[in-house]
Specification:
single chain, alpha/beta, 7 helices, 5 strands, 41% helix, globular, zinc, APOBEC/CMP_deaminase_Zn-bd, Nucleoside deaminase, zinc ion binding, metal-binding
Length: 150
């Protein structure tokens, strides 16, 4: 992970703050292409859209999946403010995105958030390791900055 990765993670943290301000859970995602350009960003919309799948990562992938092929997405990096849940990890795999970088680990998030009935305590590495296509994963980083939003 380099300084540019950390800068993009800080952007996801800003997106997460915006999600909270809009009445949702504070999660944010950002997609960067091979040239380093922002392709899309998305925030969590579970509460305001009354959509249990309205996670930042799935919202982002729905947007870009209509425009970009898996071949283009293979050269992209998805940045997430928090380690993607099992649903989002699956969406990242099936989208074709080639790299994932996240800030807050699911382990620290669950320790902070408590043990709830609607949580699947599986890390994204465990999920993505089951596929035949490799998704490079880096993280966690900047965990305390993300936890401060909660």
């Amino acid at each position: 992970m380099n300084d540019l990765d950390l800068a993009h993670l800080k952007t996801t943290i800003q997106i997460a703050r915006a999600a909270k301000k809009h009445g949702n859970q504070p999660f944010g995602a950002l997609l960067i292409d091979a040239e380093g350009q922002i392709v899309a960003e998305a925030e969590n919309t579970q509460i305001t859209e009354q959509d249990c799948t309205g996670h930042a990562e799935t919202n982002l992938l729905r947007m870009v999946g209509k425009t970009y092929s898996p071949q283009v997405l293979a050269a992209c990096t998805l940045y997430a403010s928090t380690e993607p849940c099992p649903m989002c990890a699956g969406a990242i795999f099936w989208s074709g995105v080639g790299r994932l970088v996240y800030a807050l680990s699911s382990q620290r998030f669950y320790a902070f958030d408590g043990d709830k009935l609607n949580q699947l305590h599986l890390g994204c590495r465990d999920i993505l390791a089951q596929g035949k296509r490799t998704v490079r994963i880096e993280g966690p980083a900047l965990e305390d900055e993300v936890l401060a939003i909660f």
